User: Fold these one by one.
Assistant:
Number 1:
Amino acid sequence: MQKEWFAEWFNTEYYHILYQDRNEEEANRFISNLISFISIPNNSKLLDLACGKGRHSKILNSFSYDVLGVDLSENSILEAIKETTATLRFDTHDMRKVIPKLKFAAVFNLFTSFGYFDSPEDNQKVCSSVSEMLNSKGKFVIDFMNADKVIRNLVHSEEKIIDGITFKLERRFDGKHVFKEIHFSDKGQNFHFTERVQALNLQNFQALLSANFRILETFGSFDLAPFSVANSDRLIIIAELKS
């Protein structure tokens, strides 16, 4: 059985090379803003869903929370677990499934880590699983791209040279998904990976969340500016589990 694209690409060292230029100060400010808005008591249990190497998990933990970071990529988790402490843990996990016997005050899904699946039903599985893992009135935080703006401003072709590797990137929109074709060569071998993310907008998320959640607020930036379809870079949703 062929692996899903994200299971293969996210598990390579090259994914982390291509996306290594991430702003840590911005990430710290974003988490600080979220924590201030949600007002979660110290020592609460939090879940970082699709955590990668644990960048946001570590920041959440620094605010005195008990954090579990999970990701489908075994190699990412192998890196993340090097930072394990009594209140910061990591494990491999498929976000479409419930983690047995664990409940959380909040679940965070950050850095456009949603909409990777072929089937829309899988999106609903994620939302349903999250709802089962939350305490009463628990919060679900989704940080996604503003798909409408991304599509309008799609950069169809570009090259990035990182760590001596030339990544050739080609993007397209097929009416439902934003595709990124990634070509590069390294150590005498040619590589090609495809990223595919569903172009979900606010209305799509409202429909997905409506069964189990009520949306408290939407923001359009890491500074929690109001969301604007025309101008915002991000679509950040704060939802609360219905009682």
Number 2:
Amino acid sequence: MNQTVLVDKRNGVLTLTINRPERRNALDIATYLLLADQIASASDDKEVRAIVLTGANNYFTAGNDLKDFQTPREPGDSAGLKFLRALVDCDLPIIAAVEGSAIGIGVTMLQHCDFVYAADNANFRIPFVPLGLCPEGASSIRMAQIVGPRRASEWLLRGRAFTGVEACESGFTTGITPPGKALSQAQAVATEMATLPPEALQLSKRMMKHSLRPAIHAAFDYELGLFTMRLKSDEAQTAFANFFRK
């Protein structure tokens, strides 16, 4: 396995660790595709009952690797969108563990996890507008559904950072932990899930997502064209150039 994704499978739990510490676990094309493949394969693996998603070195992810935003895109789904679709379509329970920072898609992917545990000193930010971009990851609809329209406007339009405590109080995350304990909490919940009757568990998740999934995929399609246009905009390219100069 490519070392940008560490894979551990034991006791019915598949733990996927984003492992690009030199880039603050920023997600590049290869890493997205590896994550998507692992999640899709887990759905067909009778030995896997739950998935844990985390980042190496006590840091979740700095979001999309901005270098990929400066190269031409092929038509159709990006690698990031393939990963998000795999996340949304998975009937296995998915539990995220957040330490350090979650930025951009590092935040929006959490909308599609069933449980999210974050350290109380973790921080989150969705800097799409400051980067000249627009919402992705179905955040144009899901964020307001989860945390309410006022808070969604603060996070998506202003790009305001928020803490692990704020994330929990808003209902965006399931719970908070002391620093360094998010992964152990996520794995404890995943281990509990792995003891439950698997058919009943997966059917129950499928029922809960039945009306949401079509709307989420429609949002992905809607956002894709707009996000692709924004990537080519002068505003976005200027923001990327300024970022790399710093």
